[in-house]
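Lay summary. Proteins are chains of building blocks that fold into shapes, and those shapes determine what they do. In this project we predict the shape from the chain. Here is one chain we studied, written as its sequence of building blocks.
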Amino acid sequence: MSSDALKKVFTEVLGIGADTDWDTLRYRGAEEWDSVAHMQLVGEIEAAFDVMLETSDVLAMSSFTEAVTILRRHGVSLD
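And here is the predicted shape, written in a compact code that computers can read:
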């Protein structure tokens, strides 16, 4: 899988544009990414990538970049 699949999850859940600056997208840094959207993101990421995130992962997922790191740690290849 590619990071495009993760970007698709973020754009669908948060309702943000594909032209988003992914390097700077942060939890609560974007109006759309609040606590409710965060939990929706977690659910959609788990479904899309067939992973079960730990509570520590959910709490640590503070940015798009961190989401990539967490998925890689779970063995998901995001080329």
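What the prediction tells us: Residues 3-73 form a domain with the Non-ribosomal Peptide Synthetase Peptidyl Carrier Protein; Chain A fold (CATH 1.10.1200.10).
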